[in-house]
Amino acid sequence: MVKRYNCTSVQVKSFMPSAFILSQGDEVVTGQTVDTNAAWLGDRLTQLGIDVLGHVSVRDVEQEISDAMVEATQRADFVICTGGLGPTDDDMTAHAAAQAFECPLALDEVALEHIRNLYARHGRVMPEVNQKQAWLPMGARRIDNDWGTAPGFALDVNDCLLVCVAGVPREMKVLWTERVLALLDERFHLRPGRLVTLRTTGIGESNLQERIGRFDHPEAVISYRTMSPENQIKLRFVPSASDELVRELSLELAETIGSPVFSIEGLDGELGGSLIEVIGRTLADKGQTLATAESCTGGRVAAECTSVAGSSAWFLEGAVTYSNAAKSRQLGVDPTLIASNGAVSTEVAYAMARGIREASGATYGIATTGIAGPGGGSADKPVGTVHIALATPSDDVHRQLRLGGDRRRIQNLASAAALDLLRRHLTL
Fold first, then answer.
1. How many CA atoms, within 13 angstroms, populate the side-chain half-sphere of residue 131?
2. Is-contact 276 268, C-beta < 8 A?
């Protein structure tokens, strides 16, 4: 038997709270709708310094929703529930809360008037079924929704704050910003800790762990996040951590990791940013330019360059020379070089990089050539073999890769590796 709790008045907390996220809906459980709400809320809660204990999705079954609410409120100091506040029979959040916490539903006249006015503003009469949305658990604090018909509500149950809001992402996000944050601050007097993110590329998560070793500090915790083609190390500091400690520990960790770190975010004096943003800033600061010649990556390197504002100051042009004839015609690659070494080779990669640099007049030329698959590989050059080259004013640099995965993954990783080759050269 699941233990039930009666609703009580709001109690103010002084510690950093824990949270649990509850999503509901058959469409969410069956995968017909991707639950972006949970990811978004988890990120926002973490930014506030709140410890997210977990997330669960349940079907549109009143008993299951009710049981999930009880379990979540037993585990956490704050529970946020999204969805199930609409007018149809499968919207059961209010009924489930009433059952779970023995708070009978009561008609909220203010909520009802709000729904009627919303329809009236659009020249329509409120359907009677929408009256269901104005029935809220007794003792709940109404959360006005000026962006939709479904009011939310907040309950204090067993020393836990339960907040239920609309599941439509557009409404949920504005309700979080305009309504829920105030409730959290009122109850918990939030003092978010500092978050510093070290962004790396060209190194795997296990290799990062080996370099860092055991991390144990009383004022900071470390976590890892993979967002291919980069891996991120997140340092979360307690609210009382001094600026000096935050800076010292973050830079010490970056030094331990070494060259794979391409930016640091959340630290005073550090601009942060993505790999291409870091490269673009460096090129712009130095008054230097870039051009690209691509085969296996199909223009992805050039697309990445032009994805950031201001790239016209440093990116000149890109050529997708997929065929051998195009490599010769546009980049001046000697056909005999291709015939003797193959299009996927160190020699051809160098020739492509030098060719685009000379043709464009850019400071740097980047080239990629490889086998993205699924076919075309051989024993000597299996699928995933990629050659990248960088032509510079002083010397030329080459790197050979053996990448795994499907075609898209190989192309994306090769593009990132090409840009990282330039980034590392720029930091010499």
1. 7
2. no
In angstroms, the CA 87 to CA 51 distance is: 33
Cis peptide before 382 (omega within 30 of 0): no
Strand residues in 277-424 grouped as ranges (E): 290-294, 315-320, 364-370, 385-391, 396-402
Q: What is the pLDDT of residues 125-143, one digit of tens each?
A: 999 999 999 999 999 999 9
- Judged on CB neighbours under 10 Å (0-12, 13-18, 19+), 213 is exposed
Q: Strand 78-82 relative to strand 18-24: parallel, antiparallel, unpaired?
A: parallel
User: By percentage, how much of the chain surpasses pLDDT 90?
Assistant: 86
Instruction: Region of 223 please: left (phi>0), alpha (psi -120 to 50) or beta.
Output: beta
Distances in whole angstroms, Cα of residue 102 to Cα of each of 105, 139, 157, 180, 375: 9, 10, 10, 23, 63
CA angle, corner 319, sides to 314 and 324, nearest 5? 150
| Max intra-chain CA distance, the chain | 84
Q: What is the mean pLDDT of the chain?
A: 93
Please tell me the distance from the alpha carbon of residue 297 to that of residue 416, in angstroms, as a whole number.
10
d(CA 260, CA 80): 38
User: pLDDT digit string (tens) for 342-378?
Assistant: 999 999 999 999 999 999 999 999 999 999 999 999 9
What is the pTM (predicted TM-score) of this model?
A: 0.74
H helix count then E strand count, the chain: 15, 17
Paired with 390 in beta bridges are 366, 397
Say if residue 307's pLDDT is above 70: yes
Helix axes 243-257, 205-212, angle to 10 degrees: 120
Under a CB-based contact definition with an 8 Å cutoff, are residues 333 and 340 in contact? no
pLDDT for residue 11: 41
Q: Which domains does the chain have, with CATH numbers?
A: 18-188 (3.40.980.10), 195-265 (3.30.70.2860), 275-426 (3.90.950.20)
